[in-house]
């Protein structure tokens, strides 16, 4: 029999639409929204033109803050240090090319979506894998914090109110994104595509228009801060100190590289040929990112943008510090003001698109976090239910954790992207480095067995790329740690340690349980199989639920069957007994005495006495249960049954059967449950569907 | 077979002691305390000398505030009105005798502990019964609020700090009592006896000593306020206005009568002959209360106690108002200061005993509230589990509700007993009146059938007493409502309406469910009995829990048996299938496809398809369940199983069997569950044990 087929789906869908169209749960609906059909999930795999904005909004958006951070750090040594910025840009470009080239190898070798975690886990062992995972989890938190803070700053360059209430606005956006993702909105290609393409187009037009004006028309464009002077914190820096400063500036510039790994986690979401399309998208993304990054640095130099690490003190206007009230606009908005003019239509559009892309970049973390969680859950580092769909509670907990941590950081650091960036990148480069080292091992292993010369050549080439990648990213990691540790990178490391510890503990728990319940190899059925069953039906009154439970219990052909009631009220018990006889129910009714009106204890002790009497008998307890529709009805029903059930589960050799009786009101709960089921887990688009029929045909009956 | 006997109890007790001696749950233990053995509950029924303090602390303690309230109201018409106070005391005494005489009839006629509610319900119908119940519930809240506020004021006469932080202290005592009762401390006779007897003895010594000094030694005793003057708010009040004032004073004096009904609710807790002992205790209590009440009024007159309704303005010292800073001590403490001397040993002991008795009176409400709740639950006006023991949650909710409402009142009324008393008494007199009217009807009914002259005479006498009681208490109710409605009685009425509405709604719900599930009279088994059973064992992996579930399912001889797994991970499913074959498990394994990694939906749809195929088959689903010991382990296990179970219960024709597998960690939860079971529900002493063997012999097996 084929189950779950189209016909049934059709029927179910009709029911669902009916239930959704009724206006129940109004407050929750308004807040969390209507659930979407899960069988639409991944109905279409992503074409490259959609995959690019979905996966690349994070790295592309980082050009909104990375160039500024470079200038900011250089300003410490005074305006003269600005001349190093093209060299730093060049270094970032080389790094970007290296990383992109390396990851193109990854997506070909590991198309399953495990990304850096899988690569490190497979090739370097579980500890390396878990380190990468912890690093990435921390990085997701920081992606949210940094992207939203930067988005708020960009929005603020057009709308002053936003900058004046920076922290509140940033937290507001976090809350909004969180609600959106709890609601289960599917990552939609078009939602991502429009602002991302507007942003990319805007930046390119700006660069082109700036180049045209500057080079062809030879006009002087002046940034709003062009007339400012910079007071060097350390004048005439040279030797080691200068190198250290340049390395710090480079570290900040590396923020442009965050999010590159997203594509390698999302390979299953691409159309076929998945790996090739992913690699192409990766190259496209790298090309766009470096062009935009360099273009903005170039324009910033051309328009004399001035940024300082401590603008209040070190930025001078007519020789006087600008003071606390001064708001330092992001470099992209200063450049836009110089090229398009402050407040012009293009300026505002670009600011809005920049902010939007940055918020989308934050949303990327909301999707990447559960995606990684799902893979970690598969390896039992996180609760198992993150791997399957549908446990909204667990997913929600993860999202709330992510949002809470990000909001905390935003609040502690005053939504200041410059300060938050000090924490950033550590995680990314930990995972870059470990992943590339893993890839080198991967090729080494494969080279051992591969004999075909063409493939060997290819592998050797790939290994060289990954080896260079490992070397370079490792170097950057050392630089980042050295230059940023005291500036805040320690916070990121602490976060990594916490994630690592938690996940290790969860894995240890699962392992110990797994060892406890592992089935013995020999005669598996023997040791747990009891010889007979005694069935007991719990009875309080003679009504339909009881009669149904009795009828069901009879069907099961137990060796013995009896009904059991507890005497908490002599009058009621007498009435029950009389009705029992009057109806001629052919099941013996046992009455337990309970002088203190307890229900649980007499039943438990009776069951225990049966088990003691004949330890090889299993006891099957049937509990008639009302199925109700509202929480307050739960308070009025089933309490004794539930408590008893909970206690019986602790008694070995007992199985507990709920025989439900659906009250009319249960329809409401049924509808709610269905709606809940149709929730879209964040990250599910990136994860792609299970490779259907890859190893098992559908609904195969293995008789 | 005899079950629940001594031997088994012994074994269970040993286990319990072991589990309790382990120091788990430390924080909770400190707060809520160690649970007590429930089979000690009601081990001894109460002798009269213990029953008196347990049941009478409420009415006896009210002499601590009632006399003062009388003077307070009279002061409105100036000092001259104080001369009416003996007349008012006389009226209260007459009322007390009437009420006591009436209730002596009640306890003889209704020894089951249903009290006023039962009397009104039986004789006047459910609406009257529910009105009485609502009134009593409101009164319990007010007993807590008034007694604790007054206790704080009495304590404050010895310890000024307490009066300075009245509200905080009062709320603190409420919290303390609440925790005590949540903890499940048994109402202990000796705990009640000592302070109550110290209080009674102290008041009698004070009266005797005062009388001896005043009459025999002819010394002048002067209360601390003897030199104060009272500015009459309404000088020279006469005619209707004066009568109204006197009636208001009388209403306040009636506070001495609250709690009289407690004995009629507690008859089952008395030793045999229960009714006679209860009636004697009632008479004793009445005698003590009126003697103390009159004695204190008499001493207050003799020592020139001056109290004013608004002391700050109307109490003059040397012609000047005493002002806001002045604290008006309770009359009992002023009298004690006059007789024993302020701050002397006797004074402090009496103040402490008074406060303690008042707190015990409040505790009485904590026990009376669930007791009444239990009776209301039996009639399905409140959740059913209040009738049986053991649902700590429900009891706790009730207690927290009581405490919350009392604390709210204390806070709103600034822990001012004078203002709170305006709300009090309404409830008591509603229930007095309805109960007495009910008793008249009761005798009328019995007189119709009774032919024996001696019994008829007795009944006619009882009827006369109850009729007078009904008339008098009804009159008082009208007086109370007329004189106090705007002063706060409306709040009490509002509370009654809320309780009435809630209980009606609950009853309506139970009735509608009851009608829905009522078994048809004809061929009860027929319509619900399916013809065959198909058993399905849910499988995720092949481990001990799964093997146990398979073994149990096999025992049940279903018509068809299959194992079911959902393919959320092709690799795992492949491994499962291979192991299934390797182990040679002779149950067919069905694999459901789930492209989007859902578990619940494919299973539900499969079960539905079976039901559609053969609607007369029942489906029995076996779910292997881990039993774990800590909440965080729940997050890591069973989530899919629980969610699935919840959804299956909504599917008609399905029964769900949990086959538990007890992990080692489950021991912890088992112990916690046992401890929870040994909790003492508040009110259980008053309620007495079920009349064992009265109608049903213990553990009778009705085969």
UniProtKB/TrEMBL annotation, chains A, B:
GO CC terms, sorted: membrane
Region (Disordered): 665-703
Keywords: DNA-binding, Membrane, Transmembrane, Transmembrane helix
Protein localization: Membrane
Bilayer-crossing regions: 84-103, 130-152, 158-179, 191-212, 237-260, 281-302, 345-372, 393-414, 420-443, 464-482, 488-506
Pfam families from the UniProt entry: AA_permease_2
Biased composition (Basic and acidic residues): 688-703
Bilayer topology annotation: Multi-pass membrane protein
GO molecular function: DNA binding; transmembrane transporter activity
Domain of life: Bacteria
Protein's UniProt name: DNA-binding protein
Protein's organism: Streptomyces gardneri
